[in-house]
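Lecture 7 notes: from sequence to structure.

We start with a single chain of 301 residues. Read the sequence below before looking at the structure.
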Amino acid sequence: MAPETTRPGDDPVDDGVDDAVDEALHTAPAAPLRGLVGWYSGYRQRGVPHGRHLGLPSPWLTLILTLDEPLSITAHPDPRTPGGDYPTLLGGLHLAPAHIAVPGRQSGVQVALSPLGARLLLGLPAGELAGTDVPAADVLGAEVADVHERLRTAADWPARFAVVDHWLLRRLARHTDAAAAVAPEVVQAWRRLLADGGRVRIDALAAEVGWSDRHLRARFRQEIGLTPKAAARVARFDRARRRLAARPHRPDLAGLAADLGFADQSHLDREFTALASCAPSVWLAREFRNIQAGYGPPGGP
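Now the structure, written as tokens:
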């Protein structure tokens, strides 16, 4: 989940600042964390129109550490979870968007975590977080408060990213042995799904790793948090929205559907509606300002 999609509303801006601020940047983690962490995103907005953000399904777990105001979630991917305010948040893989209210301002650091790095960095398999958003301290303990405070007092974005690097490297050193708990077959299957953009057949994937379809489904879901079929949907959707964001002025939806393995443009529309709660054209119209400003994850394949 990423705080990346704004739809401006009609409410007036009243956040106590005179000059608008609109910052978004991405950076890679320290070398030992690469492969376990995709990237860090820093974002800060002040004096922008009131809006609503969508935290969209993606192949990454999400860790958010806010800087000033808390993250205000009005609807979670799991509709049974009530909305609330989160100074920090940790979310697993999911198949529905989170709805985030932004009253003219937001700021924080987002960490994109690979499900394969969950045991090493979080101390539990990603499957235990599937479909959920929780306060980060519920999983990571009291140290989150210390990291949160150091982030808030850091001088600039490089210093903030260094705080997160230092913290995650310490956690990695504590859980080094946990990597052995992830079955090599699950690692192979996950990487194959991502590399192929979700187009590989699941029976072929099971044969490739040497497991039955049923065994792969059970072990994969336990470790990753989604079945292989659901993970393939999310991987393909993620590629589609990145490609759309790269060319928001001239989207070729029919060509995009053909390139990414959708049956046709109608299939692409249905998958977008299922996973983003709106069609691709509607998503682009709502997200255009944030896409242009660089919010959300860095470009992918």
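The longest strand covers residues 37-46. Keep this in mind for problem set 3.
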